[in-house]
Amino acid sequence: MNDATPPPVRPGRRRLWQLPAELRAFVVGLGLPPATLRRTAEQALARLHRVRVALGGADADVLASVLCDLGSRNAVAEAVQAQLVQRHAAARARVAALRGPEALREAWRQALEGGDVPGTAWALLTHPLGATLDDGLLIDLRGWAFAQARAQHARSATEATAQQALRQACAEADTLRLRLQHEQAAWAREREAQALELARLRGECAALQQAVAAATASSALAPAVPALAGPGPAPARRVVPIVAAGPARPGPAAPRGAEPAAAPPPPCTRAPLLQGRRVLCVGGMPGAQDRYRRLVETAGAEFDFHDGGLEQGLHRLDRQLGAADLVVCQAGCLNHEAYRRVKGHCRRADKTCLFVERPSLAHFARTLGVTLPSSVTPVPAAVTRSPKPAPEPSPSGPTPSKVRVVA
Fold it and tell me: Which end of the chain is more exposed for a tag (fewer CB within 10 A), N or C?
């Protein structure tokens, strides 16, 4: 009879299907992500049935189905066991060197304080002495899972609140942006109205200044240019003087003491630019329209006039611009809208537009390239002319000049 005692059998590591069902659910549910668990089960079933497998349903349905297969050793249980071993290899290596239940409990407390709870739980439960921790680990895992759920819910609520606040801030920013755009548009319209009003006031001021200057010029030029000052119909024909051949014979002598007869004023020099063309004068000194007409028509052109919107309507200006061959614009004697229309029409129609620098008859003639007769130049009232002795009378009288009328 042999009295030798056999050596004690050393317990081995427990497998996944050897753990209690409730602990097994915590280990799988916390230790593997849902996507990894679904992929592992699909691969195990595909190898088993030699077909391609795709598990449908939600993640909770897949977890419940896999837990039903983990009660015994099978292809799915072994695949999940290998996935847990691979995923939590570091925790398993730390726990493998521990000896005694107290060392295992200390490692679990450290994991609960801030370590890897799912991996440590799996490593401790599969430890050879892990059966001594089943009840304590189950209670702690329930509490930890509930705490994680509450923390996740709090984070979700905080994120939802932050997203709601962000949406409200975006809506307020959109409202402020629209309000700013409306205010900017209103400010732009107000600035445009102010600019138009300023242009109108400047035009009125310029018109008043030109009226004063015209009144002063009219009072100074009235004694000197009686032919241009008086109103009358425009001449329909232009007269070209031709000097007769041969010397002029003296005429009868004027009475002694009488002033000699004034010579007729020389005609205006014709400008090639004006001959046979229709000239539109836009703006000008008040009351000087007849003078402009005489000057233009004497130079061989057809005259048309518009006061620049001071009294006449601007709808008439467009028709006159279309009929004109040449435009003379006196910029200081018309409003802003008339000036804009004249400038825009001449640019589009490629039409000649002459601008008069100062509102006077002399500047008007200089701009057109027409030379005024010497009689138009005003003579100061203080200057007097001494009478000249009359020439001796001639028995034959003066020889009249020959005149050719051109229609």
Answer: N
